[in-house]
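Researcher: I'd like a candidate sequence for this fold, 596 residues long. If you have to choose between options at a position, lean toward the conservative one.
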């Protein structure tokens, strides 16, 4: 049904710290020469402490910390050369098998606790009572929204000068401007999380904070040619769902800051080039060849932040398959869905993580994100008077739309599905990502929103009262049942809301109500927002995967504010006032007095 996928491979060639012009010239040279692969070039992160090497291996395999991420987030007391020299002496003295206790002493002597290079930061543009709060009719939800608005102050971070002055002593990638972190173990920024964070910040009237975060991302593209998964050097080998162009669109719509767009349009195009050059694959159907995108990280080795888990998993497969497995885990992390049955498509047991084959799937959501970005950047160029570039990206979008309809769209089911390159067919399992093209506006038939509603009904998704499940498979992975995630609720809710049909719009509202009910209920009990929720039995903090559920939480807060803004005159808390935490109860009572 299809030939061997043609894979572009410039991902191999992203040099670690190439200045902007060098990177752009390098990219143009490769494109001009038509080169697909630069295997000889070194991987982006050269650190023998944070990315690979014996020190990393021994510390992580000794499991000094419950979470592998803790070690690679610790900064050095002295230079890497000094630390490596001391480590070599220690390793030699113990024949490269250092006792755990002495390894622990070594780390405590040469590394600082996590977070020393960061300082808490209260955004200067934070203010009481942004306008959108007035749209919220339910008094308890309005008090809760005020609490969510206050969380931005807890999640603000700023890098200390030492990260700029001694970048080699930390895994942090220096960012000039302060930013909002997700929360919990995630004390740096993350790529796709930041889109929903920014939407929330704009509702909180914090456009200056958003501009600084955008500038950080643009600086990363200028330096590395792409935006890494998160703000650490060990994330440089992979990106995350490409939402930078959408972030810029939301900022410009909100602020009318066309000058900022004009200054950075070339950088937005450069980020899209990364995906075009590095992550494309050719798929044949009906005698025609189509080019689409996939997640693909051409590097083996364990992920430094999950080193011991990856190494142990790799040991469970034949030696010749290990590097491939490790590269597929990184591609799964690049997808943002780390991990999910979406990617567990190889081997005899599809519930095992070792069956992961992320790069063998052509994802519906990734292609929808890129389709949307191509439309937005075309519109940007038109607005700036560059018709040539506007036409180029308009044509790219048209080509992608045709490819998505030919390869990913299923006429019978009324949704888009990931395409399995090895099996030559769609994966017809339910995932909210199957409706991403609707959210992204990447479709040609206006009736698809109503078709999507029927797809949800046929899949029995509307029977879940506390949120849209991430999948209908229970694998123990965090991007599967029974977890529900904020960004996936958004993909479905705003997709359905595009319909002209009152019934489809009503379902979008009901799904928003369900999600707000779950978030509000858990906050009332825990006084916290979470990165994911277990919707199997009334709504609880989620679980599964590689680490404990995290509080914060950036994108959950952002989507809650978006839904409260959009449906604030209709949403209800459905909870007694007494069920709120004591600090919320006092605020609610004060508010009720003010409203009398």
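Model: Candidate sequence:
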């Amino acid at each position: 049904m299809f030939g061997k996928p043609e894979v572009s491979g410039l991902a191999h060639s992203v040099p670690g710290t190439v200045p902007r012009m060098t990177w752009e010239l390098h990219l143009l040279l490769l494109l001009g020469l038509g080169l697909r692969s630069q295997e000889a070039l070194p991987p982006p992160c050269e650190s023998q402490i944070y990315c690979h090497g014996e020190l990393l291996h021994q510390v992580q395999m000794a499991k000094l910390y419950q979470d592998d991420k803790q070690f690679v987030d610790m900064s050095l007391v002295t230079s890497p050369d000094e630390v490596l020299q001391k480590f070599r002496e220690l390793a030699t003295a113990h024949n490269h098998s250092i006792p755990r206790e002495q390894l622990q002493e070594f780390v405590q002597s040469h590394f600082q606790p996590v977070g020393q290079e960061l300082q808490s930061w209260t955004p200067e543009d934070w203010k009481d009572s942004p306008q959108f709060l007035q749209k919220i009719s339910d008094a308890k939800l309005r008090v809760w929204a005020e609490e969510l608005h206050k969380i931005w102050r807890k999640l603000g971070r700023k890098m200390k000068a030492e990260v700029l002055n001694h970048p080699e002593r930390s895994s942090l990638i220096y960012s000039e401007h302060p930013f909002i972190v997700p929360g919990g173990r995630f004390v740096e920024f993350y790529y796709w999380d930041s889109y929903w964070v920014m939407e929330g910040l704009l509702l909180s009237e914090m456009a200056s904070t958003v501009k600084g975060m955008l500038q950080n991302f643009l600086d990363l593209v200028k330096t590395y040619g792409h935006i890494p998964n998160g703000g650490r050097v060990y994330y440089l080998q992979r990106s995350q769902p490409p939402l930078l162009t959408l972030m810029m669109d939301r900022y410009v719509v909100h602020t009318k800051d066309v000058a900022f767009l004009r200054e950075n349009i070339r950088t937005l195009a450069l980020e899209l080039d990364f995906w075009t050059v590095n992550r494309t694959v050719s798929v044949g159907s009906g005698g025609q060849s189509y080019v689409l995108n996939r997640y693909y990280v051409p590097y083996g080795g364990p992920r430094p932040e999950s080193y011991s888990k990856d190494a142990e998993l790799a040991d469970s497969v034949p030696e010749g398959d290990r590097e491939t497995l490790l590269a597929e885990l990184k591609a799964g992390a690049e997808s943002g869905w780390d991990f999910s049955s979406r990617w567990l498509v190889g081997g005899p047991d599809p519930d095992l993580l070792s069956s992961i084959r992320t790069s063998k799937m052509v994802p519906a959501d990734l292609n929808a994100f890129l389709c949307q970005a191509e439309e937005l950047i075309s519109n940007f160029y038109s607005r700036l008077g560059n018709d040539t570039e506007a036409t180029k990206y308009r044509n790219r979008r048209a080509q992608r739309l045709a490819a998505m309809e030919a390869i990913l769209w299923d006429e019978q089911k009324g949704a888009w599905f990931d395409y399995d390159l090895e099996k030559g067919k769609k994966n017809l399992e339910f995932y909210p990502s199957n409706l991403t093209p609707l959210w992204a506006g990447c479709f040609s038939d206006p009736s698809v929103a109503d078709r999507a509603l029927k797809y949800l009904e046929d899949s029995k998704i509307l029977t879940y009262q506390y949120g849209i499940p991430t999948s209908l498979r229970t694998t123990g992975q965090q991007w599967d049942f029974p977890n529900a995630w904020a960004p996936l609720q958004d993909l479905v809710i705003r997709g359905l809301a595009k319909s002209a049909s009152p019934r489809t719009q009503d379902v979008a509202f009901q799904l928003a109500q369900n999600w707000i009910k779950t978030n509000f209920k858990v906050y009332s009990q825990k006084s916290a927002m979470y990165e994911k929720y277990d919707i199997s039995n009334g709504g609880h903090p989620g679980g599964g995967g590689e680490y404990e559920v995290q509080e914060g939480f950036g994108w959950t807060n952002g989507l809650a504010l978006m839904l409260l803004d959009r449906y604030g005159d209709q949403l209800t808390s459905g909870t007694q006032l007494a069920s709120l935490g004591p600090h919320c109860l006092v605020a609610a009572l004060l508010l009720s007095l003010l409203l009398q």
